[in-house]
Design a protein that fits this description.
The complex is a heterodimer of chains A (106) and B (122). Helices cover 0% and strands 51% of the residues of chain A. Chain A has 106 residues and is mainly beta. In chain A, the strands form two sheets. In chain A, strands 2, 4, 5, 6, 9, 10 and 11 form a seven-stranded mixed β-sheet that branches. In chain A, strands 1-3-8-7 form a four-stranded antiparallel β-sheet, with no helix packed on it. Chain B is mostly beta strands. In chain B, the strands form two sheets. In chain B, strands 2, 4, 5, 6, 9, 10 and 11 form a seven-stranded mixed β-sheet that branches. The chains are: A mainly beta (106), B mainly beta (122).
Chain lengths: 106, 122
């Protein structure tokens, strides 16, 4: 099984700040990496697929990068509506999620 | 408009079998793959398994011995059955659709149901 390690587990940032979330795989996942946003009481929402492809309707302040085992989600300018938990998901083999990063406003 | 909706009992007794239904609209189950994902209260997400548009299935190895996914394409429904439930199976259960593109065994989850909370308790 491929293990996904997200960091940090918790992040507090200010409106307008650039935020970077990380996800590390236990082996090469060939860029089969997605990012999901989950707000309290809601289903997860796809943000980025295949490392750097922005899903339809997602604001351009979200971007993804990475290769091999290391991947990053960047929010270029944090907005109040971005408060949520963010999960990465690898699909190189049967899917496994990271444990999540909870993002709050400072 | 693509829609998925989970339904099932909110409460299941320990050692019993869970049966959930995912009813879909706006697409055909003969063309798209549907996955099940669960989330214990306050915790992370766990992929449970998939039924491919072909009817083939693949399960999380940790659940494989207890889990079965099937579908009725004429009714646009996907079914999850999991036996020997324990309290740690208490979770919100989601179904989700992937784009089912050639070359992808597992696609990204662009569409999700709202989820259904299942509590395992006597």
């Amino acid at each position: 099984d491929i293990q996904m390690t997200q960091s940090p587990s918790f992040l507090s940032a200010s409106v307008g700040e650039r935020v970077t979330l990380s996800c590390k795989a236990s082996q090469n996942i060939n860029k089969y990496l997605d990012w999901y946003q989950q707000k309290l009481g809601e289903a997860p929402k796809l943000l980025i697929y295949n490392t750097n492809n922005l899903h339809t309707g997602i604001p351009s302040r979200f971007s993804g990068s990475g290769s091999g085992t290391d991947y990053t989600l960047t929010i270029s300018s944090l907005q109040p509506e971005d408060v949520a938990t963010y999960f990465c998901l690898q699909r190189n083999s049967w899917p496994t999620f990271g444990a999540g990063t909870k993002l709050e406003l400072k | 408009q693509v829609q998925l909706k989970e339904s099932g009992p909110g409460l299941v007794q320990p050692s019993q079998t869970l049966s959930l239904t995912c009813t879909v609209a706006g697409f055909s189950l003969t063309s798209y793959n549907v996955h099940w994902v669960r989330q214990p209260p306050g915790k992370g997400l766990e992929w449970m398994g998939v039924i491919w548009n072909t009817g083939g299935t693949r399960y999380n190895s940790a659940l494989k011995s207890r889990l079965s996914i099937s579908k009725d394409t004429s009714k646009s429904q996907v079914f999850l059955k999991m036996n020997s439930l324990q309290t740690e199976d208490t979770a919100t259960y989601y179904c989700a659709r992937d784009p089912s593109l050639p070359g992808y065994n597992y696609g990204w989850f662009a569409y999700w149901g709202q989820g259904t909370l299942v509590t395992v308790s006597s």
